[in-house]
Amino acid sequence: MSSLAAERRLEGHAETLPTSGSDDASVRLLGTCKRFGAVTALEDATISVRRGELMSLLGPSGCGKTTLLNLVAGFLAADSGQIEIDGERVNDIPTYKREIGMMFQNYALFPHMSIAENVGYGLRMRGIAKPDLKRRVAEALALVRLTGVEDRRPHQLSGGQQQRVALARALVISPRVLLLDEPFSALDRNLRASMQIEIKEIQRQLGVTTIFVTHDQGEALSLSDRIAVMFEGRIRQVGTPDEIYRRPADRFVASFVGDVNVLRARLDSVDGGLAAVTLGRARISVSREPLTRVRPGDRVDLFVRPEQVRFAQAGEPIAVEGTVAAHIYQGDHVNLYVDAPEVCASRLLVRSLEPDAITRWPIGARVGVSIVGTGAIAFEAEPDQRGGEPRSG
Amino acid sequence: MKPQPFLRIFVSPAALCALGFLAAMATVLQYSLRAYVPGSLDVGGFTLDNFTALLRPLYARVFLDTVWICFLTAACTLIVAYPVAYALVHAQNRLIKAAILVIAVTPLFLGEVVRTYSWIVVLGNNGFINSVLLKLGLIDRPLQIMFTTFAVVTALVHVTLPVMVIMLAAALAHIDPAYERAAQSLGAGPIRAFLSVTLPLSTPGIIAGVATAFAWTFSAFATPQLIGGGQVNMISNLVYQLGLASFNFPFAASLSVAGLALTFAVLSLLRVAARPLERFGPH
Fold it and tell me: Which domains does chain B have, with CATH numbers?
């Protein structure tokens, strides 16, 4: 591609950027590409992270999220496109001049330095005088609620404590942007939950723009202000957790984020922005947007969340009929899996909050399932596949 | 402990060798405590005279020279080997990696005499360096490079380089590249990141490499013999002269024993110095 064409394309991107305006953007990528040999790790990524927001990059491994993070950090150089931090083009600025704070997956605390030396490292590189440095290190450690460990070595701390040190080390330099690379993957479940809450609180308190890489959709939904869902080197959708969950842009986003049932249905009619889909005896109203190429009578795949289906009560139109195949007891709810091979390629997941669900709908029982609410979304049926599978995170 | 039926069989050859070495060592030790009978290969009664003679300036000088040459060699080898090892570990291209490795370890495959004669060809008065400098008109008459400490150290660096490169590369390869990235993210330029993170983290490798180079150089014989040409004497050369030219076996033995003791002393000193650094060694 000629540079002129590339330029024109960049301008095009600039025009279609979110209305928030460029002065509100802390980190911006414009048509950024990165290839490793024949593999395109990141293709034409355009994204704008607002000042003070926590944006997560969510996707399966190999989707390009770590590549994107490393491009922002400067550990990789973009093949084309532009990367901006605070409105400044940083493509040719090396990592150490980018004023970023990064927390690494395994924390990368310097093993030969004490905790205080680790946290103070960035300040020493900036030539901060000793008394000031000492005060700021103490403040940073207090911020992550870790005091009295200044003289210890990293290997003498627990995983959670090491993470706090890593966070303090990244934050003490008041970075323009904080980058977190799968920060919770090394922690056990309980610790993970409490560290997530804490990091989110600190992030909000400081108002530091944060980019957070994760493959865990639950983590992304609970922590992020906005999520960028990535797949195969492309950003598929950017939106708030609620938008991503309720209005997924495509089949991939719908099935990667949250549990979902994919049901074979038929498009009945269209009316303005809405479309009606028939499934069993039920008629479900969905957005027309993803169905522009589908005609009435054609097959569509209906994506329904487990909380949007329930066992049909008297008088409710039954959408799917099947037999209960398995129960998974979860304490506050029960996941029931229903076999309905004509409609659902895998088992239909129904989430029941009723405490007696297991006895009311025993394995082998014939059940009718109805669709409640208006949250269902229909996409064009995939020609070669018999619907997707419900996935859980 | 699990019963290991083959243990005895497998260990016995090594045990036999060890026994042989031990006997030889005992003989040398025994010789070192005997009186020298001039004009005879037989030795006299037990005495400590050989060791007190070591303190004479002539011999003490050789000891000091040896330690100095070992130190210079280890230091120069480290300076040459570190960048090579770093390049070996961090090269992305497999071919370049292989080329560095082959070039670095080639000296190991050359016989000691062949390698030493090659240096004579390079360093001699009619050698490569002098003829080039003469032809270029930079010098009027050949520089005296042969038979100097410089020449001996140069040749010894060549010998110890492969081991040093391999030991340093092993240490460097174990350092998580995330450390250097973390340093850069915190504002350290490449050189400062290297000096403050990678270099200190590689100290266990440096110490192991220096210790090995030191011990190896301490017993060098052919190189100082041929390139030093009697002008640069190390302990082995002195042992050779006393033992095989003057047939003073007791004194040669006491020199060997003292050299061995000195090696152990230097190595344990290095070890003690390294102890505080070993805790954070490569993970």
Answer: 52-278 (1.10.3720.10)
Residue with structure tokens 């970075």?
A175
Query: At a CB cut-off of 8 Å and minimum separation 6, what does B29 contact?
Result: B253, B257
State ipTM.
Answer: 0.82
Beta pairing partners, A300: A265, A380
* CATH class name, domain A3-99+175-251: alpha beta
**CATH-assigned architecture of domain A259-380:** Beta Barrel (2.40)
What does the pLDDT look like over A281-313, one tens digit per residue? 999 999 988 888 888 999 999 999 998 999 998
Mean pLDDT of chain B: 89
- DSSP string for residues in A75-112: SS--SEEEEEETTEE-TTS-GGGS-EEEE-TT----TT
B184 vs A96: CB contact, 8 Å cut-off?
A: yes
Question: So where are chain A's domains?
Answer: 3-99+175-251, 259-380
Contact at CB, B283 and A111, closer than 8 angstroms: yes
Residue B187 banded pLDDT, cuts 50, 70, 90: very high
Per residue in A329-345, pLDDT (tens digit) is 988 899 999 999 988 88
Return d(Cα B224, Cα B159) in angstroms, integer. Answer: 12
Residues of B with CB under 8 A from a CB of A: 176, 178-179, 181-190, 192-193, 196-197, 200-201, 277, 279-280, 283
Question: Would residue A179 be called left, alpha or beta, if left means φ above 0 and alpha means ψ between -120 and 50 degrees?
Answer: beta
> Under the phi-then-psi rule, with left for phi > 0, alpha for psi from -120 to 50, and beta for the rest, what region is A86?
left
Any chain B CB within 8 A of the CB of A126? yes
Tell me how far apart the alpha carbons of residues A357 and A334 are, in angstroms, rounded to a whole number. 7
Show residues of chain A in contact with B274, CB under 8 Å. none
